[in-house]
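Recap from last week: sequence in, structure out.
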Amino acid sequence: MIEVFLKHCPISTNTFLIGSPTDVFVIELTDQLQKLKVEPVLLHYLASLRALKGLEMRMTTSTRLRACLYSFISPGGPMYPTRAVRHAAWDSLDLLFPVGQYPRHVISLFFRLLYPWYWPSSCWNFVKVCITTVLYSLLRLLFSSWERMKNSRSN
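Predicted structure tokens:
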């Protein structure tokens, strides 16, 4: 739907300097994302960025969008984003720019290892994610086998 919207936008007279309506839209979006301070709204916007996948952007616009997402990924200042915002930004960055996804994560892991005071919280969150993943897998297996048993009895 965003492509239809952008096709109806007027083309600027100085398109060479600004770019297409897609570029103008993404530039305004990144500017507004940088100003957002309310976490639920920011999470919604970051999750909605998947609508930009596949849109033609100039290199400068693409770089601006990446820089905006990188600013939400870093755990330090000036924004100090929460864990949820950082993960949503990672997901958006990986979806929009899949090339270089694994080197980005390796570099991020390397720099996280340089700060040992973050290790306890990182390990704790990793353990929590592993436990919830195993628990949900076991519950899914239990409920699916229960449904199969219930369906076999009714037949």
